[in-house]
Amino acid sequence: GFENAPTHAGPPSPASTTSCQPNSQKEHSLSSLPVILQHSQLHESAISGSGAGLTALDGAQLTAGTVPDLRLSANVALRNGNQTFTGTNTFLDGNGGGILRIGPNQTGPTPKLIKFGDGDYVSIGESGIDDRMEIRAALISLFGTIGFTHSLYVTGAVSVAGGVYAGSVGATGPISAGGSATIARNLRVDSDGGNYGEGIVLNCPPEMGGYGGLVFHSTVRGGALGADTVKWDVSYNYAPELGVTGDGLAFIRNNTSTPLYLAANGCVGVGNVTPTSRFMVVNARCDGNTWVNSSDRNLKENFGAVDSAGVLEKVVAMPVQSWNYKAQPGEQHIGPVAQDFRAAFGLGRDETSIATVDEGGVALAAIQGLNRKVEEREAALRAENAELRRSVAELKALVNTLSAEVRSGAK
Asked: I need a surface site. Which of 80, 171, 216, 312 has the fewest CB within 10 A?
């Protein structure tokens, strides 16, 4: 047993502290201690036992020592153990939000963090202004509208059920968005050399109308897409002049006109959404071998007569030489230069080009002028010939008369 020293009123002190002195050299266990020690010190080198008799202990009074992991409650998470959290767990910082630090302890000003409760957002990245988020996975699936102030780069595929709003987006796999995707800076796609080496793939599901494309619009960042903001649209299976039809690819300006159209039949139209030749510019066309100018009377106006004789004179006076283009030194051509042609006839748009329709028209007018000149000369020759024949006939008649008189006088 232990001997209890006399107790004194007031706070314990070295002189008045109740002490427990062993009355023998025998070691005593805690289970043999029948009393509750208060404001007492145990001057003993060791106490053994289960401690089952100790109650109402205050752990805050433990100021030194080590507690083995196995002595901790199952509700205490270990730093170096695999943890499973159940129920609702709240991590709070001084502002009422939560911060979860990831990775080694950072000594710099921008540690890697997952931050919760900051204006109902979850932030992943550094705490500084150069935040970056890197996700490495075969497929990243995001639901809702995802916004990134800076850049998003994913080594796998990105699938977003809603829209995407980001600074820059890069991914080695496909990027798909169920809603609208707004990229504030740039979108870079590097093909991975797969089956078809896809870059950007635009799907236009039949159940959604079967048309769509790439729209260029100009408005403030994050502004709504509207008829007055759309500047250009590269659209599949749609053109303003045709509606939703044709399976062609249209380059649409201001959502009102189609300057360029690639038809499903392989024909290309410039200012023509129904091209019937390999290349058509409004009504002019090319089949790959010859160029055909449009010349429909219904397309023309301001008709006037042409002085074909005057045209012929100008053609005769105009220099026609052989030459080659500077960029094609081995190819010789024959014809006038645009400056001389323009000075002679005043045709065409400028002094540096000759329209084939004008060159052909001048040639035809000159031929008509030459034909008229030949006909006029021929008429003059015919008249002169007739006069000569008349004169010959008169002379012949006179000769005959004189011959008859001579014969009759001789008799």
From this structure: 80
Residue found by looking up tokens 């380059």 in the block: 251
- What span, in angstroms and rounded, lies between the C-alpha atoms of 409 and 78? 166
Strand partners, 257: 253
Distances from the Cα of 32 to the Cαs of 19, 47, 119, 165, 367, in angstroms?
A: 17, 11, 60, 72, 139
- 32 vs 44: CA distance, rounded Å: 14
Query: Could you report the per-residue pLDDT of 279-306, keeping only the tens digit for each?
Result: 999 999 999 889 999 999 999 999 999 9
Is the distance from CB of 100 to CB of 114 less than 8 angstroms?
yes
Residue 394, burial from CB neighbour count under 10 angstroms (0-12, 13-18, 19+): exposed
Distance of alpha carbon 206 from alpha carbon 128, whole angstroms: 46
3-state secondary structure of 272: coil
Record the tokens describing residue 351, joined without a space.
Answer: 């002094």
Kindly list the distances between the CA atom of residue 312 and the CA atoms of 333, 349, 369, in Å, as whole numbers in the listed order. 22, 22, 6
* pLDDT digit string, tens, across residues 111-147: 555 665 555 555 665 555 444 555 555 556 666 656 6
Statement: residue 275 has pLDDT above 80: yes
Work out whether strand 257-262 and strand 249-253 pair parallel, antiparallel, or are unpaired.
Answer: antiparallel
Report whether 279 contacts 267 (CB < 8 A): yes
What are the pLDDT digits (tens) for 360-370?
A: 999 999 999 99
Asked if 173 and 138 count as a contact pair (C-beta separation under 8 A), the reply is: yes
**Partners of 166 in the β-ladder:** 183
From 106, 148, 154, 143, select the one nearest 123 (Cα to Cα). 148
- HSE of 82, CA atoms in CB hemisphere, 13 A: 0
DSSP assignment letter at 130: S
Could you tell me which residues come within 8 angstroms of residue 310 by beta carbon, excluding any fewer than 6 positions away?
369
